[in-house]
Write a structure and sequence with these properties.
The structure holds two protein chains of two kinds. By secondary structure, chain A is an alpha/beta fold. Chain A contains 16 helices and 14 strands. By secondary structure, chain B is mostly helical. The chains are: A alpha/beta, B mainly alpha.
């Protein structure tokens, strides 16, 4: 009897353990191919749910897709989940990823090339294709683009007699922007000249990038083989020195509230293109948008990049995954996704059909996306670069020495490039 | 007697070959089996794997490409300036937090160890931060520490003290975290001290009264010695907890400014999850384990005396 119990228990536990690891079968109802998708939870979740429902209706009996929306926060919770999925080979068939991760994921072999699988590829804006390309192969495409521009409080600028530029060629130079910020700062009333967020995630390299590029600086060599002399090169140092002036002289609040600009406590705001939708909730604030300021030594540049879709190497149904990808990325669905998130569309045909982007103030954002967008560096060492650079810039804004901090970044990233075998 | 051994022989021959003692042992093992399986799967196995991985070059996104590289990760660790900064920060945090938090906890325990209604309210009051999620507490304290509009600076201004930078300053960030950590954590140790205080025999205090001892003398000569075992336990768990400092710097300062709040666990997370360097972060984990083990053993020795 006792022995019987013992073996019974063993069988039970073994069953539990095996049950955990066997996973689900890859076929759904009626023999349809089952596809899984991961995307961060957010405003687009509803749009994707709708699109996938329609897709499942259209392809009933053939393909059945199911999306999981994962909470992200302003840090790297979603990326952590992907890392864990890669370790345990449980990645979905289709995987959403932030633009700068393309190189790292492609290099690690968790997403696969999709060359020739994307319908109407030439209809996508250049920056989205550049972002999805690594080692001359296309890995990802995404529905939307992004940019950072200068939002301003029209009343405050009027009062100070400041005219914001209306065209890209007239974009403020560094000095003009700095003077305006200085003039608009009113320490007594607690009004800051400019607001810029200091999130710890990807934001810092994203929003400071154009200052560096516009000055002729770079984060990494064109062939991706070195950062020494680039991320800490004289042009980059000069650009970051320029930004440091703002924090040093108190033109920017280092611990702003999330609605500092909306509440009228900051006269201008360097912010992402998605912010204009939030501003609709503040009808009393009279605002406008102008171009990202440019270095006196260079052209006007704006940042770019957004979430993308890639096909994971874990998938057994690449063809069906591509069908779903093309369905989600068709002209009509891209309009749907862009409208939910109030983001610029990454397909030119979709973008053209969205009327409000041709008028003030959104035309500035559209102009930047189509004409001055610059992608972030594509390198397998990107996680180290963005983290270390972000920390360095934070230290600099709090008073650290620019050259010293950026030298440390160069040192760390060089070591990582060596370990990744890029050098 | 003869017939008894005959009976046993008979029972054995029909298949039940276990004596009563053996049965008891097997049954005990059987009952602990679920716990043992869980312990093995979620504690012993991961620790063992971390040890193995610490000798490997292992990119989290490419698990099939891992290779043995011997002591490379350890060599790299001991040349990494950030590691020594993190070690120093962790040590500093523990060295300040442990005595401070235990002292505050003991003080609170004595304060609420009264048989009146308000004492019960006090216990709830002091314990509530413990049951609140640390992430929530950390976000709230970030607001409190805000330089321009934070409550703490407003209070200081009211007293005529100028604004302090708190989390924005290399010199004050860690101390700011220490302060809020003590506030958050002391309630837990207070409860343990409180249980210890209930066990101190009333007669000892009565005897001290008769001897004419004052309040401080009673505390020093009666309360403290009676709490010796409890204090040892509290010191031990507080130390181990203090070494695991992660959430506060992760939420409040991101390890900055200038790595002044970067701790060993923060560094482990950063290398493991953000840089996806499993090998290196495993090496950090192993060294972290050894440091905590050594300090626990020393503490145990000291407390025994």
């Amino acid at each position: 009897m006792k022995k019987g119990y013992l073996s019974l228990l063993f069988v039970l536990f073994a069953g539990v353990l095996i049950g955990c690891s066997s996973g689900e079968e890859a076929s759904g109802e009626g023999g349809a191919v089952k596809l899984s998708l991961w995307h961060p939870e957010g405003d687009t979740s509803e749009a994707y749910k709708e699109i996938i429902e329609e897709f499942n209706k259209e392809y009933a009996g053939e393909i059945q897709a199911e999306a999981t929306f994962i909470p992200r926060g302003n840090k790297y919770a979603y990326e952590d989940k992907v890392s864990a999925g890669a370790t345990s080979s449980t990645l979905p068939d289709l995987l959403a990823l932030d633009g700068p991760n393309v190189a790292n994921y492609a290099d690690s072999g968790i997403i696969q090339p999709i060359d020739g699988l994307v319908e109407n590829q030439e209809d996508f804006v250049d920056s989205i294709i550049q972002q999805g390309t690594y080692n001359d192969q296309l890995y990802t495409v995404g529905p939307t683009e992004s940019t950072v521009a200068l939002f301003y409080n029209a009343d405050m600028l009027n009062e100070a007699g400041i005219q914001p530029p209306k065209a890209g060629e007239e974009a403020w130079t560094w000095d003009e922007f700095y003077n305006a910020a200085q003039q608009l700062t009113d320490k007594e009333k607690g009004i800051y000249g400019v607001n810029w967020t200091l999130d710890y995630g990807e934001w810092i390299i994203y929003f400071t990038g154009p200052t560096v590029w516009s000055n002729g600086g770079q984060f990494i060599a064109d062939d991706g083989s070195a950062v020494e002399g680039y991320v800490n090169g004289p042009e980059t140092v000069e650009a970051v020195e320029y930004l440091k002036k703002f924090t040093e002289e108190g033109l920017v609040n280092l611990q702003p509230t999330p609605t500092e600009f909306e509440d009228g406590n900051a006269a201008m705001m360097l912010m992402g293109s998605w912010e204009w939708a939030k501003l609709q909730d503040y009808p009393e604030t009279n605002w406008g948008i102008t171009y990202y300021p440019k270095s006196p030594n260079g052209d006007q540049v704006s940042p770019s990049g957004d979430w993308n879709w890639g096909i994971s190497t874990n998938t057994e149904h690449k063809e069906e995954a591509a069908t779903l990808l093309n369905y989600m990325m068709n002209e009509e669905n891209i309009v749907k996704i862009s409208q939910v998130e109030n983001k610029p569309a990454a397909r030119i045909s979709s973008f053209e059909s969205m009327e409000e982007w041709n008028e003030e103030p959104l035309n500035v954002l559209k102009d930047q996306v189509l004409n001055t967008a610059h992608p972030r560096p594509t390198t397998p060492s990107y996680p180290v670069l963005t983290t270390k650079y972000g920390q360095a810039v934070q230290n600099i804004f709090l008073g650290g020495d620019v050259q010293e901090e950026l030298d440390k970044v160069a040192d760390e990233v060089e070591k990582d490039l060596e370990r990744k075998g890029v050098k | 007697m003869e017939w008894l051994s005959g009976k046993i022989q008979q029972r054995r021959s029909i298949g039940l070959s276990l004596t009563y003692k053996q049965q008891k042992r097997w049954l005990g093992f059987l009952f602990s089996l679920p716990a043992l399986i869980l312990l093995f799967t979620f504690l012993i196995l991961p620790v063992g794997l971390a040890f193995v991985y610490s000798f490997m070059e292992y990119n989290m996104l490419n698990p099939d490409g891992k290779t043995f590289t011997g002591l490379n990760n350890y060599a790299r660790l001991f040349q990494d300036a950030v590691f020594f900064t993190a070690l120093k920060n962790t040590m500093y945090f523990s060295a300040v937090v442990v005595p401070l938090q235990c002292a505050v906890a003991l003080g609170l325990a004595i304060l609420v160890n009264k048989k009146v209604k308000t004492a019960v309210i006090g216990r709830v009051f002091f314990f509530s931060p413990v049951v609140t999620s640390m992430v929530v507490v950390a976000i709230l304290w970030t607001f409190l520490y805000n330089v321009d509009s934070g409550l703490i600076n407003s209070g200081l201004n009211f007293l005529g003290i100028p604004d302090q930078p708190f989390l924005l300053s290399e010199g004050q960030a860690m101390n700011s975290i220490i302060f809020m950590s003590v506030w958050q954590g002391a309630g837990f140790q207070m409860m343990i001290f409180l249980a210890g205080l209930k066990d101190v025999p009333e007669t000892l205090y009565e005897a001290a009264d008769i001897d004419g001892a004052n309040a401080f003398q009673k505390f020093w000569n009666v309360t403290l010695p009676s709490l010796k075992n409890v204090t040892g336990f509290v010191l031990m768990i507080t130390t181990i907890q203090a070494f695991r400092l992660f959430i506060q710097p992760y939420v409040m300062t991101n390890g900055g400014p200038s790595d002044s709040t970067k701790t060993l666990v923060f560094m482990l997370y950063e290398n493991g999850f953000q840089f996806r360097d499993v090998g290196y972060s495993s090496a950090i984990a192993v060294v972290f384990f050894l440091v905590v083990l050594t300090i626990s053993l020393i503490l145990k020795k000291v407390l025994k005396q």
